[in-house]
Amino acid sequence: MKLGSLKSGRDGRLVVVSNDLAWCADASHIAPTLQAALDDWERLAPQLELLATDLAHETIPRERFHEREAAAPLPRAYQWADGSAYVNHVELVRKARGAVLPDSFWTDPLMYQGGSDEFLGARDAIPLADEAWGCDLEAEIVVVTGDVPRGASREEALGHIRLIGLVNDVSLRGLIPAELAKGFGFVQSKPASALSPVFVTPDELGERWKDGKLHGTLMVDLNGEPFGRAEAGEDMTFDFGTLIAHLGKTRNLGAGSIIGSGTVSNRDADGGPGRPVARGGRGYSCLAEMRMVETILDGAAATPFLKHGDTVRIWMEDKQGRAIFGTIEQTVVAS
Amino acid sequence: MKLGSLKSGRDGRLVVVSNDLAWCADASHIAPTLQAALDDWERLAPQLELLATDLAHETIPRERFHEREAAAPLPRAYQWADGSAYVNHVELVRKARGAVLPDSFWTDPLMYQGGSDEFLGARDAIPLADEAWGCDLEAEIVVVTGDVPRGASREEALGHIRLIGLVNDVSLRGLIPAELAKGFGFVQSKPASALSPVFVTPDELGERWKDGKLHGTLMVDLNGEPFGRAEAGEDMTFDFGTLIAHLGKTRNLGAGSIIGSGTVSNRDADGGPGRPVARGGRGYSCLAEMRMVETILDGAAATPFLKHGDTVRIWMEDKQGRAIFGTIEQTVVAS
Fold it and tell me: How many other CB atoms are found less than 10 A from the CB of residue A154?
C-alpha cells in the first residue's frame, strides 16, 4: 500500500495511491490525515488496504495523483530523529571538516533529534536566505513507526515500522561547524526537510525491504545531471531496527515518529570513498562527500554548494523504472 | 486565561481552568485539543476567553479541576526546543564535567532540539530503568508559540508567544558525557519531560510577564524539602524572544512549538554560584548544580542523583501563595 497527503490545511488529506502513482483515492472517510491513521493503525490499516485493493481494481472513484499536489505524507510530525547509519558518510564528512572518526562510531549509532514541525512537500522549493550558508542536499531513507515502547529490542522495533519513504534532509554546511562546536547538536543548520510524495508499507516493497534495510539504488540528480547512484542496501552499518532501539532506549516513541538513515553512502571495493558518477562511480548523496572526494582526487573541491536556481531530484526506481516513492524535485530559491 | 488538557486519548481534552485552579470548563466544543486551539488561535482564543470569563462568573457548567487528572497541556507536540538561557547554569554544569565555557555562550544562545512525541502529565511518574543513569530534574520555564515565520526578529517572536508554563526537563546525567562527545546532541540522555498542569496566557500573568521573561520564584522541593528558590526573572541572559528568533533563523516554527528556558539558575551577588537553601541561599533547579556547589564548598558532591521513590515538586506561587501553573509533582519509579 502507498499513502500520500494531498495539500490541504496543516496536515494534508490522506489518499491511497496506486502502485504506479498515477491514481489516488480519497481515504479521509477512514482517517482524515496520515497521522490519524498511524494513531489507530491496527484498526485502520486493514481498511486502507481494502481501499488500495479497490483502487487497483478500479472499482471506486479515483482521481489522478499529481506529485506536485502532494504535501509531505506527514506535513508535520511529532518526531524526526535522523541517524548516521552509513558510517562511510560520517567518516568522509568529518574528514572534510578535519575531525577524526572515533572507533565507537562503528558500533554505537550516531543520531540527532531534528525539527519535525514542518516537512516540505516533494515539489516545494528550498528557501535559502543566504547562499553563503552552504546549502547541501542529503538523500536518505526514512521509516515511520507506530508506538514503540521504551527499551524495545531491535527485533521488536522492526515490528513497529509502518511505512518507508525518502527524505531530502537539507543541511546548511556553513553553519554546522560553529553550531556543533557548541556541543548541543543542530538547530539553525538543519532547516526544513522534504519528504517523498508517498510512503510505502514494508509488505508492498517485497524483496527490497529486508533485514531492516531498504535495498535499491538511490538516484540523485543535480541540475539534471546524474549525481548519486548509491545502493541503499549496502554499507548501512546500522539497520532501522537498531536505530529505533537506540533512540528508544530511555523513552517511548510515539506513533508517527520519522526515523532517518542518514545520508546514503557506499564505500569503494577497496574501502575508499568511491568516484563521482561522471568518472564511472556511484557518486554521492550529498555535496559534502563530493567535495571531499574532489579534494582527495584533485586537491580542491570543485562542486559548489547549492545556489539559487539549482535543482535537486531524489528517487528510487522499481524494475519497470517507475519511481517507487515518487520523486523529490526541489529548486533552491532566494527568500 | 489558563488552559489544561484532561487525560483522554493521545492529546487530552481541552479545558479552561479557573484562576485558582479549583474549577474547569469543557472547551472541546471550541477546540477538542490544545493543539487544535493553537492551530487556529486568532479565531478560537477569543471564544476560549469568553468561556474563561463565564467560568469565572460561574454562569456555565463547571467541574472540579484535579491536577492528578491533567495530562500535559500538550501531551505531544510538533516541537520541543530547549535553550540554556541561564548561562550561569551552563557554566556550573560544564565545570562539573570539566568542560570550559566559551565566551560566545554569553552572546550566542545555546539550544537543543528535544523529543516532543511524549510529554508526561504533572503527576505522572518518572520511569527510570537504571539508577546508575544519574537521573536529574531540571526546573524550567516554557513558552508555546503560534506560527513564527522564518527569520522573525526578537520583537516579532515575542508577539507569537501564546502560552507560558513550567517543565521538568528530566536528564540522565550519566549518559550525557558520552552522548555529547559524539557531537550531535542529546538523544538517550533526555527522556520524556513533564509539563505543568496548566499553561497560562501572557496577559493573565500581568506584571510577571515582562521583557520576554517570566518573573517569580521557581519553587523546587526534593523529597519534601526546599531545594530551589531561584528567581526566574533574574540572570536570564537570553529572553524568550531571543531564543525563538535564534531557533527560527533558518526555518518556520509551527504553532504549538514549545520553547524552554533551560534550567533556571541565579548567580550570587558576588557572581558566584550561590548557596543551597539549607545554607540560606536560593538553592538550585537541578541536582547537577547542587553537586557542583557541594564540590566547591566541601570538596565532594553529597547529594545523589534521583533514586527510585524520590519525589520532585516544581511550582511558582502568586501573591496569595497559590500555584500559578499548578504543581509538577513526580515520583521516580523503577520500570
Answer: 16
